[in-house]
Design brief:
319 residues; alpha+beta; eight-stranded mixed β-sheet; four-stranded antiparallel β-sheet; 9 helices; 12 strands; 42% helix; binds (R)-mevalonate
């Protein structure tokens, strides 16, 4: 049996603007998704995902892209794309195991796609480089979701902190220490496609204003890259708050996110922002070590749930 695992992610700077070819900064987090594979003698793909209550779901290898339930589509489409590219057909037993919920926006879909492709390359003894995994995994995510920059796929493959440009045009590692981050979950599931669409509608209505916001976000990302390497967390916090002002102006923040962000700042955080698509999911705050507990308490006091993460985490690996 072959097993591979890949980490989830947190967007630190640059969400949404990255869809329009601006850079972003992403961190891989230590919540991983593992995929175990074994060959079968028949033409069945038998998939179990106990964390999401899927046991022994059967798909035929000639029928992998038919309308399967959304929960198994990422794994089955990864298998389909891998088989197509490397001209393979084989029955498989697959089991996925997740250390985090698919409801909090930490990138479970991209992590499961990357783990599946890495495990398949090991099982069939095909050497597949990181950029090749990226291209195949990004195609798989786009096949299903239709939208996305691929930043989450890059984090799952390369790990660490990355400066990233859409489609993998830039994937650059940022050298820094662990960033003192607090993560608060709003309890609301965000729908990335809807929010990306909302921004594209705003861009159509007001191209000049929205492009100006994207340019400002790009400026913040470039400054943040330097300050991360300097490990100047106070500056990083200030840049996060500036990024949040721009995201609010884009219209993708929410009452719940704003409550948690306000609470983090009240608790003494250097700065805070939403992380990801907006509309819900998680917010992040940078604090000094001494204020971390106070920031967490304030977030909890207004109804947020603290998600304990260690960052940066290592990229995809065979277990
Ligand atoms: C979603 O987590 C981040 C977005 O920038 C979309 C993407 O980059 O794929 C909104």
């Amino acid at each position: 049996m072959i097993k591979a695992s890949a980490p989830g992610k947190l967007m630190l700077f640059g969400e949404h603007a990255v869809v329009y070819n601006k850079p972003c900064i992403v961190a891989a987090v230590d919540h991983r998704i593992g995929v175990s594979l074994e060959k079968r003698e028949d033409r069945k793909i038998v998939l179990s995902a106990p964390d999401i209550n899927f046991k022994n779901y059967v798909a035929l290898i000639d029928d992998l892209v038919k309308s399967h339930p959304k929960k198994v589509r990422f794994v089955l489409t990864s298998v389909f794309n891998f088989f197509e590219k490397y001209k393979i057909k084989s029955g498989l037993d697959i089991e996925t195991k997740s250390e985090f919920s698919d409801r909090i926006g930490l990138g479970s879909s991209s992590a499961v796609v990357v783990s599946t492709i890495k495990a398949l390359s090991e099982l069939f003894e095909i050497e597949v480089g990181k950029k090749e995994i990226f291209d195949l995994a990004y195609k798989t995510v786009l096949d299903i979701q239709g939208v996305g920059s691929g930043f989450d796929v890059a984090a799952a493959i390369y790990g660490g902190f990355l400066l990233f440009v859409k489609g993998g045009k830039t994937i650059k590692s940022i050298k820094t220490e662990k960033i003192p981050l607090v993560v608060g979950y709003t309890g609301v599931k965000a729908d990335t496609s809807t929010l990306v669409k909302r921004v594209s509608e705003r861009l159509k209505e007001n191209p000049k204003g929205i492009n100006k916001i994207f340019e400002e976000i790009e400026r913040i990302v470039n400054l943040a890259e330097i300050e991360m390497e300097n490990q100047n967390w106070e500056k990083i916090g200030k840049l996060m708050s500036l990024n949040q002002d721009l995201l609010r102006n884009l219209g993708i923040s929410s009452k719940e996110l704003e409550n948690l962000i306000r609470a983090a700042l009240k608790g003494g955080a250097y700065g805070a922002k939403l992380s990801g698509a907006g509309g819900g999911d998680c917010m992040i705050a940078v604090t000094c070590k001494e204020e971390q507990d106070r920031v967490k308490k304030e977030i909890e006091r207004v109804g947020g749930k603290i998600i304990e993460v260690k960052i940066p985490a290592k990229g995809v690996r065979v277990e």
